[in-house]
Amino acid sequence: MKNFNYHTSTKILFGKNKINEIAGEILNYGKHVLITYGQGSVIKSGLLEKVKTILADNDIKVSELGGIQPNPRLESVKKGISICKENDIDFILALGGGSIIDGSKAIAAGVKYEGDVWDFYIRKAKVEDALPIGTVLTLAATGSEMNGGSVVTNDETQEKLPISSESLKPKFSVLDPTLTFSVNKYQTASGVVDIMSHVFEQYFTPDMGTELQDNIAEGILKTCINEGPIALAEPENYQARANLMWASSLALNGLTGTGKMMGDWGTHMIEHEVSAIYDLTHGVGLAILFPNWMKFVLNERNAFKFARLGRNVFGIKEEDEVLAANKTIDAIRAFFSSLDMPAKLSEVNIPEEHFKKMGEKACKFGPIGYFRRLNDVAVTEILELSK
Ligand code: NZQ
Ligand code: ZN
Fold it and tell me: Does residue 6 lie in a domain region?
């Protein structure tokens, strides 16, 4: 296990009606809040009205930015930055899933920067400071509620790029599982795949001696495998939604990656290229790509790690490491299919046309992946396997 510093600064307010505590939290940072939300789910659920009432009752002034898209666009981010600058906003409250939270983080960083906020995403500038943000999570998936990551899409350049900064970690996040009751089957399943993928990205690394982290990772995977189908069958099952919600945060708050050099993240980088061009739901892209990444990188030296996962998570009994590894990958594919996730890019109408371009764009800053380094040709091959 490598040396590490671990600091999770986000305060989690977990459970039913925890929304009632937000005013006190916000008042630690400011009195004029920009509420951000997406394309209407928080209006339909009544969450927006409820939050506005709570803030009004506590003399907290509110501005609004709605309409942020899934795969949030730079355009919305720029709109948010202008609203903040023109109105002296001192806190951003994101109501929604990962897209709303990521867009809000971009706004928070952009407000404190003189240049173009896109500079952060193309690695021209580093986030040094940001407005404080809080979140009310409505979809269990990305972990953005408890990390410093933000992924934004630039439609003009067809790029979808990530940044990460300590100063973008939410000050608090409300995790009320009942707020996810209304998430439809498709988004629930995509969320489960995303959570599992975050575990995979940090599980499949060349590091040794991280028994505890890998056991936690396997626990999160088992939770997704047990609770995911329950949430699909019974959308209002509190315990299933609660377990998935907490799994979302724990899968990507740095915990399972501690003591390791870094995560792999190759599959995420490839998925971002696919959704940059085709606006695909993130978890759906991962469901298609991850088993193919696994098949592509599997070899005799690393098979033991796949086999371990298969034995501990799926109960695979096979003794031969490579055979067990292959059975593990098949079990993961079968689980994703049981959630009605597609297995091929052609099923979501994505043709081969841009595979080479996606390979080149994914490796724009150099080869990707840590478990196995991938150059543009390798990325294109994984996309070919996924067609
Ligand atoms: O826009 P609204 O109306 O809110 O509807 C959303 C959207 O259509 C809907 N939804 C959310 N909560 C709901 C609900 N519908 C009914 N009831 C609710 N309670 O679900 C749809 C998808 O929402 P979105 O926020 O896009 O989903 P998700 O949380 O999966 O976020 C995906 C984005 O996060 C990025 C992805 O690349 C993608 O852009 N990621 C962010 C990460 C991070 N910051 O750490 C890591 C991830 O790997 C990921 O890359
Ligand atoms: Zn993800």
Answer: no
